[in-house]
Specification:
The complex is a heterodimer of chains A (256) and B (330).
Chain A: E1 5-16, E2 19-30, E3 34-39, H1 45-52, E4 60-65, E5 68-69, H2 76-79, E6 82-85, H3 97-102, H4 115-128, H5 143-156, E7 161-164, H6 173-188, E8 192-196, H7 200-206, E9 209-214, E10 217-222, H8 230-235, E11 240-245, E12 248-253
Parallel strand pairs in A: 3-8, 3-9, 6-7, 7-8
Antiparallel strand pairs in A: 1-2, 1-4, 4-5, 9-10, 11-12
Helix pairs in contact in A: 4-5
Chain B: H1 3-12, H2 14-21, H3 32-41, H4 48-84, H5 96-110, H6 115-134, E1 135-136, E2 139-140, H7 142-166, H8 169-179, H9 188-207, H10 209-216, H11 219-224, H12 229-251, H13 257-269, H14 273-297, H15 305-323
Antiparallel strand pairs in B: 1-2
Helix pairs in contact in B: 2-14, 4-9, 4-10, 4-12, 4-13, 4-14, 5-6, 5-7, 5-8, 5-12, 6-7, 6-12, 9-12, 10-14, 13-14
Classes of the chains: A alpha/beta (256), B mainly alpha (330).
């Protein structure tokens, strides 16, 4: 089974100034699956993702990516083939889309980008289906288009694992659904995707595996399990109405 | 004109501008006509020794110094704008200019250490101080760096005032003249003294020029693309500060120039630093040379070049401020 694990986390703890954010986390993420991380604001979801992306140094415990334990200073893109998408991104300068996507190659470029880097840039634009945006100014695009550009930028680093921190929180509903479709496409192409989502219904409809983080507890479920999990009510709301939908279940809050 | 044609123009313009500027100046017998008559018509009435002296010993080093200084201000301005992610930052933002002004004043006042050396050292020290103050938990946030720059500027301006109060009127005049930018006592020695740190800084910035694009997108974006944003910023700051300190030490303070040139270049040629850094250097050099020609000839005395750039630059800056969205949101 070990070969199927893209990321293994053992006894992981992290905090700032004696304030513990996550403690003693044990969880595995499986290859070629879409894993959704769910939890309330401030529960440590982003921290967990950042630790996996090598953006934060972990103090205790172990993170293994592709069965290799990662060190304090490792190059996530180059050594672990990880692509990380931050929650918010605000560009100031009017770079073209092509220039933005090219920066995704930074880990492989010593001084100046070469022909190969430019080719990979175009390939990832093609792969996301946004070749037509190539020469557009990034800052003038809509939120949905900008997010696609950022995904193309991640793909330019040729990752095997994508870590997405609330990738659809700033998108309209239509774009959210489009984005989920894109994720499913990338899973079909062989990628492993771990994303933080806030909409439980979208998450349960699309995800293969679900990781709940609540009160420093981490639990993971697969397939149909989450609906019976007591954590669902605890995290989202205690007054929910469950509605069967095909072989799955969605739920709505009971508002009074 | 297309962007491509303009680029050719930018690359071709420096040589004729530099050559033409050789014949601009207050000395009446050094015009192009005199040169032409002496060189091509062997006119005996022309004092050839004085002519070549003015052209090669006085004007040539000055023009080269002006050109390189203008280029450095533009290049380091562009680089700092990229790492600060703000198009309204100039090379003096971290206290470089007030450090240099204090250093120069100290040199002029004490008259035991070379003025340029003192200005250079204090310019470096000022930026170092800002960097040190802004560093927290091994991280450098942009806002704390800007605030540290303001404090550094305040400290050195206060120290400068003390020296100004204690100086006699004659020295005070040279201090004031220095702070508004002066090229009037440029010579080959001065150029030779400054050229090494200038080139070292420029080389650092030029080899890093594509990475400016990465850091301009944000620390987080740079880090997730596999670069170390802290180390990258330190290198860029080092390059910009080395070249900028050497330039300010030999030229004085040329206000707003390093803010405006990168902005204009960006409006015309786009934001890709890989392409535009060299354009910044050439445009910065060419235009400062032209402005210096005006400052040399407009009045009977030499108007400090910093007065010009400040007065031309200020309205432009206000216009930029009103029109562009330059808030720091992270």
């Amino acid at each position: 089974m070990t070969q199927n694990k893209a990321v293994e986390i053992k006894n992981l703890s992290f905090g700032y100034h004696h304030h513990s954010i996550i403690s003693n986390v044990n969880v595995d993420f499986y290859r070629n699956q879409f894993t959704v991380i769910l939890g309330r604001n401030g529960s440590g979801k982003s921290t967990l993702l950042r630790l996996m992306a090598g953006l934060l140094p972990h103090c205790q415990g172990e993170i293994k990516i592709n069965a290799v334990s990662i060190q304090k200073s490792f190059n996530a893109v180059k050594e672990a083939k990880i692509g990380f998408l931050a929650q918010k991104h605000k560009a100031v300068f009017p770079f073209t889309v092509e220039e933005v996507v090219l920066t995704g190659r930074a880990a492989f470029i010593n001084w100046l980008p070469g022909k190969e880097d430019r080719k990979i840039t175009l390939d990832s634009l093609e792969r996301i289906g946004i070749m037509h945006l190539k020469n557009r100014i990034y800052t003038e695009l809509s939120g949905g288009e900008q997010q696609l550009v950022m995904i193309a930028r991640l793909l330019a680093g040729q990752p095997e694992i994508l870590l997405l921190d609330e990738p659809i929180s700033h998108l309209d509903y239509n774009n959210q659904i489009h984005f989920i479709h894109l994720i499913k496409e990338l899973i079909k192409e062989g990628l492993t995707i771990i994303a933080i989502l806030h909409d439980p219904n979208l998450a349960f409809l699309a995800g293969d595996r679900f990781v709940f983080i609540h009160n420093q507890m981490v639990q993971s479920y697969e397939g149909h399990e989450p609906w019976t999990a007591p954590l669902v009510k605890e995290i989202f709301h205690d007054n929910l109405t469950f509605i069967p939908h095909g072989d799955k279940v969605v739920f709505i809050p009971s508002l009074q | 004109m297309t962007r491509k044609k303009l680029t050719y123009l930018i690359f071709l313009l420096p040589i004729p501008v530099i050559v033409a500027s050789l014949f601009v100046g207050p000395a009446g017998n050094s015009s192009f006509i005199s040169f032409f008559r002496w060189f091509f018509m062997a006119d005996e009435t022309i004092n050839s020794e004085m002519l070549t002296n003015i052209l090669l010993q006085v004007r040539m080093p000055r023009i080269l110094l002006v050109f390189i200084t203008g280029g450095i201000l533009a290049v380091s301005g562009a680089a700092l704008q990229a790492i600060f992610r703000n198009p309204l930052v100039d090379p003096y933002v971290l206290g470089l200019s007030s450090g240099a002004a204090f250093g120069a004043a100290l040199g002029l006042w004490l008259a035991v250490i070379p003025v340029q050396l003192s200005a250079f050292v204090f310019a470096l020290a000022a930026v170092g101080l800002s960097y040190y103050m802004a560093r927290k938990n091994k991280q450098i946030s942009i806002v704390s760096l800007i605030l540290a720059g303001i404090i550094t500027n305040g400290i050195f301006t206060a120290l400068l005032t003390i020296i100004q109060i204690m100086s006699d009127p004659f020295k005070l005049q040279s201090i004031v003249h220095w702070t508004m930018g002066n090229f009037h006592n440029a010579n080959w020695d001065r150029l030779q003294m400054a050229i090494l740190p200038m080139l070292a800084g420029l080389v650092i910035l030029f080899v890093m020029r594509w990475k400016l694009n990465v850091i301009a997108l944000g620390d987080e974006e740079a880090a997730s693309a596999g670069l170390n944003p802290g180390r990258l910023k330190l290198w860029i700051l080092t390059g910009a500060t080395l070249a900028g300190s050497a330039a300010v030490a030999v030229s004085g303070i040329i206000g707003l120039y390093g803010l405006i040139v990168p902005h204009v270049v960006r409006m015309i040629f786009g934001v890709d630093n890989q392409r535009t850094l060299i354009i910044n250097f050439l445009v910065g050099g060419t235009f400062l040379t032209l402005i210096d020609n005006i400052s040399r000839t407009l009045a009977g005395f030499e108007i400090p070049i910093g007065v010009f750039t400040m007065l031309i630059g200020a309205p432009f800056f206000i216009w930029l401020l009103k029109k562009s969205n330059v808030g720091w949101e992270h």
